[in-house]
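During the no-cost extension, the postdoctoral fellow (Dr. R.K.) reprocessed legacy sequence entries with the updated structure-token encoder. One reprocessed record is reproduced below for audit purposes.
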Amino acid sequence: MAQPDRVLRILSINESEIDNQEIVRDLEFLGYPILYAGVSTPEEFKVRLNLAHWTVVLFMSNTHSFSARDALAITKKHDPELPFILISNGIGEEEVANMMKAGAEDVVLLTRSHRLLQVVRRVLRESEIKEKEAKASSIAHKAYAAREQMLAIVSHDIKNPLSAIQLEAQMLLKIAQRDTNSLLSEEVKIQANRILKTTDRLKALIADLLDKNKTADGLISLTKTSCNVSKIFQEVLDSNRPLVKEKDILVKVAFPQDLNGLLDKNKIFQVLTNLLSNAIKFTPTEGCIQLSIEESELEIIFHVMDNGPGLKEADLNRVFEKYWTGEVSGCSGTGLGLFICKTIVDAHGGHIQVENLSSGGSHFWIGIPKTSPSPVPGKWLKDHKRKILIIDDDHDLREVISWALGREGYSVHSYSNPIEALDSLRRARHSPQLIVVDFHMDGMKGSDFLKLKNEIEAPEVKECPALMISASPDEVYAETSPDLYKEILAKPIDLEALVRNIKKYVN
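Re-encoded structure tokens follow.
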């Protein structure tokens, strides 16, 4: 059935108005409203082509002012996708073949009007399909753009508190390192290190969300390094100790010493965390979980076993499906956890499997291809300098940066309102050696702040170097002149990187 809102726009090249009228009457059988225009010269044809979005061009072979080949060439130059149909009283097979090779939609005989209807009907059907595909593509593009914008906003809002947490933990660690004789100090070091490791993993997850080069599932891009796999599994267990303790679960471990694997540490940590979290969730109070690693000739195998209710036999082949959720009383989830695990393991060239234990409970294991030695971590960088101005509308982050830099020996003044900061600079209340400003602030971007700062006449203000902090460095690069700032520091802010960059500009 024809769509009532669709118009059949016919541009006919024909010197016979009678023929044109007959063609229009034939096409009315298709059931579409028809917009028709007839031309007989190349000049008219070129003008008419630009006056509407035509459905099809028809060329009558008895036209003498120019040839079908010339008309086809003009049509394809105007729009390569615009269908061109040659209507002929008779034409040789060779010429038909040549026209089709040149891009004609079809060649039909004038005496076979039903054939013309079939060809135009096909053109309309293909046109509708293309329109639907274009509409779907446009919707998909808008959805993707909205998703990217949402992720950027969410990641920005996450990075601010994450920066504060990271800086607090770094300062706790430094304080604890100064007091080596206290038992409490040792405990603080352990806890601070755990917090820092967790913030590192959160940063990696945020980076994954915003990775423009990832695949559609967003989980395939890997950064492989040689890592101690036992240490990774131990860190997973340590990070879940509070949950284990809450349910009074006994955890038995069997981790070999000095076993290295070539893998993406953060993503394998994510997989093992997911498996252990599930095991804790389904293990009863005072139950038991077993964690172990074994080495075969070709791979390293991680095992997670629990004594919970196990899985239904029918579900064993479905647990890794996207959005699949089992039917375990009192437990629920999104159905993405194990799917993500499988995607990450597959990306490593490994495998993940599950079975029910004869004694009750479930047994998950993953195999990852083997490898060799690990990189050495960097050292803590110290520096002690002078006057710095901080402008950031996030209270917690601003306070933590100010406190942390103050502990490093800097004289720090901070503002949440960029207008107030500009006013203080104009009134010469402060003569900072460096300005650190957030790119995204309510009411004013960091780039606008720096432009206004450069309009202040005092040379010590105008020439004062600036560092920009942002959760979206690419946006800063795209929107801000590099003359306004010296460096961009990506959120979450790392204290070591912050001090290292400040050291370049503050003497």
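The radius of gyration is 35 Å. The chain has a mean pLDDT of 81. The remaining legacy entries will be reprocessed before the final report is submitted.
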